[in-house]
Structures are given as C-alpha cells and as structure tokens.
C-alpha cells in the first residue's frame, strides 16, 4: 500500500549522530503526501521504506530500506500499512500537519545498494 498521499513540505529535525542507527524525523504533511511507499511482508514485524519520491522528500534524509518503528510516538509493531497511513492522516489533522517518524537504518545500508543472487 502506498503512502504517497502524505507529502512532506517542512524542515526535518533529525537526531542521527554517526554512531546511531535510529533517526527521528519530523516532517510536514500535505494533501500531496509524504512521498514514500512502505512495504511489509507477513513475517516482517515492522514496515520498511521501499520507495522515496526524491522530488518531495529529499530534504528529510529518508532512504530506501529505512525501517519505520514509530509514528508520532506510537510503536507500529505488527500494524498493517493501512493502519499506519490512518495514524499519519489522523494525527496530522490535530498537530499542525507534523508527522514524527522514528526510523532504524542499517549502518551498512546505502541508497544505491544492489545485489546479484546466483
């Protein structure tokens, strides 16, 4: 399910020191969406970012492969993508259109990683 209808437009606040795998990002939300797509299989406890619209989200340092842990302080463990989208929509209406995302990023992940499996 796509979260493209939750675009960010404001500055992000990030607490990503170089030794941390956690990132707290605060983004503005508009009718156009955040500009990301989340993916989650049935065995994944948390969803991960599978698409980033770089024209809409680049200033917030989100990367493909980032794992979403919390939305506005609420742990999304086991949530369906639709439930996460609803939490983003509902919270931003009450909170000046701000969305706080707690993400986990592998220290070894890079946006352009590719793998060949034989």
From TrEMBL:
One Pfam family it belongs to: PDZ
InterPro entries with a match to the protein in the record: PDZ (IPR001478), PDZ_sf (IPR036034)
Region feature (Disordered): 1-21
CDD domains hit by this protein: PDZ_canonical
Source superkingdom: Eukaryota
Signal sequence extent: none
Residue ranges occupied by any PDZ domain in the UniProt entry: 24-90
Residues in coiled coil: none
Protein name per Swiss-Prot or TrEMBL: PDZ domain-containing protein
């Amino acid at each position: 399910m796509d979260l493209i209808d939750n675009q960010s437009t404001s500055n992000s606040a990030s607490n990503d020191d170089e030794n941390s795998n956690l990132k707290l990002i605060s983004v503005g939300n508009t009718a156009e969406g955040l500009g990301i797509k989340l993916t989650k299989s049935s065995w994944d406890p948390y969803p991960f970012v599978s698409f980033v619209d770089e024209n809409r989200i680049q200033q917030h340092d989100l990367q493909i492969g980032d794992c979403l842990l919390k939305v506005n302080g609420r742990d999304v463990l086991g949530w369906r993508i639709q439930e996460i989208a609803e939490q983003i929509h509902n919270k931003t209406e009450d909170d000046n259109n701000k969305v706080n995302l707690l993400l986990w990023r592998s220290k070894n992940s890079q946006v352009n990683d590719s793998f060949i499996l034989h």
